[in-house]
Design a protein that fits this description.
It is built from ten helices and 13 strands. It is of the alpha/beta class. The strands form three sheets. A five-stranded mixed beta barrel has the order 1-2-3-5-4. A five-stranded parallel sheet has the order 7-6-8-9-10. The chain starts with 12 loop residues before the first helix and ends in a 14-residue tail after the last strand.
């Protein structure tokens, strides 16, 4: 810091300005501040920078503000005259004029900004209480037979949900617990509808839904009463609020959250026609496997039968005779298998492989005797 002298000699203007600049710009709290006030006299310079004053509406006070050209087009809300804004930024001193100004990084209409702050505070508190934790979420039933829908009777969401549920699962019981889904009366109406379904004791899953709309229209789904009602409900809840950009607190506390009413209906029940197709495919596959197994078994059986057939043919007496063997029978047709049954002069019939020969016994040689145990 240059030209700073205490008590004994005066400071230069530049030295004092530098000192004040250092105090302002290096202060921890002033590097990122949030100020609310009424915008006055906004002007866009030739260089593209936006200058305006921020005035205190309750007491005398004014701050010069600047938005650099690179950020003007990126502001969520561009400061307009006589509108109350919340301004975020940091303090900077301009040495040439000895004035400080607030360099703006973000601007939001005061009403919207305060609402956003309150919503964030509520979200932080409910999250700290564990209402959004995955551990407390209930699983959906795999094949529910009764589904309750909480929405407005006139809403397009009600028609979309009915159509989707009936297409996916004909014969399903669909209950409507009507309520307001927009406006000041909506939070209490939604809680009443939830209580009504709980007391009915029929629904296995609940769809809480509405169609699309502006962010302001979804405020009822950020109401603490609705969030607590969902958290304390004993029936699994699917939310289909119809707004893909913003997730409401109701989405965070619900057991399952999807972006549209149709998606909520698809999540609630399995596609019965798809299941039937899958079962049919599985049956066709099993039938094919059974046919293949039967065919292989039949082929093995036929091969074994062929083997037995060939073996029987080979053992047939006629085949044996064709290999040079003969069958000796008496004239009475008895097979002569022992010499003891024959006598000299006896006539026998000998069957050959081809034809029969008639012979007469002229000599008999008895079989050799077998040794006996002593």
């Amino acid at each position: 810091m240059k030209d700073i002298t205490w008590k004994n000699s005066p400071l230069s203007v530049a030295g004092l300005t530098e000192y004040i600049k250092t105090l302002l710009e290096e202060d921890f709290y002033l590097k990122d501040i949030c100020v609310t006030g009424e915008v006055s006299d906004p002007k866009l310079s030739q260089g593209g920078h936006l200058y305006f004053n921020l005035i205190d509406t309750n007491s005398p006070g004014i701050i010069n503000c600047v938005v650099w050209k690179s950020l003007v087009s990126k502001l969520e809300n561009r400061p307009t005259n006589q509108k109350e804004f919340i301004i975020w930024g940091y303090l900077r001193l301009y040495p040439a004029h000895g004035k400080y100004q607030l360099v703006v990084s973000r601007a939001k209409l005061a009403g919207e900004g305060l609402q956003s702050q309150r919503l964030q505070q509520l979200r932080n508190r409910l999250e700290a209480e564990g209402l959004f934790s995955q551990e407390r979420k209930k699983p959906l039933p795999p094949k529910p037979q009764t589904i309750a829908v909480i929405t407005s009777r006139e809403a397009a969401a009600w028609g979309d949900i009915q159509r989707t549920l009936k297409q996916r699962h004909p014969g399903l019981t669909i209950l409507l617990s009507p309520c307001f889904v927009q406006g000041e009366e909506a939070p209490a109406s939604i809680v009443t509808a939830l209580t009504r379904v709980e007391k009915d004791h029929r629904a296995e899953v609940i769809i809480l839904s509405r169609g699309g709309g502006a962010s302001d229209d979804l405020s009822c789904f950020n109401d603490e009463r609705v969030v607590i009602g969902i958290a304390h409900c004993s029936i699994p809840i699917i939310t289909g609020i119809g707004h893909e950009r913003d997730r409401t607190l109701a989405d965070l506390v619900a057991d399952v959250a999807v972006s549209t009413p149709t998606a909520a209906a698809q999540k609630a029940v399995p596609d019965l026609s798809a299941m039937i197709r899958q079962e049919r495919q599985a049956l066709l596959w099993k039938r094919q496997r059974l046919l293949q197994a039967t065919k292989r078994h039949f082929q093995r059986t036929r091969q074994h039968f062929q083997y037995l057939k060939e073996k029987l043919i080979a053992l047939h007496p006629q085949k044996v005779l064709q290999r040079g063997y003969a069958i000796v029978r008496t004239e009475e047709g008895r097979i002569a298998h022992e010499t003891t049954l024959l006598s000299i002069g006896q006539e026998l019939l000998i069957q050959l492989g081809e034809g029969v020969v008639k012979v007469q016994v002229t000599d008999i040689t008895p079989p050799p005797s077998h040794p006996q145990c002593k």
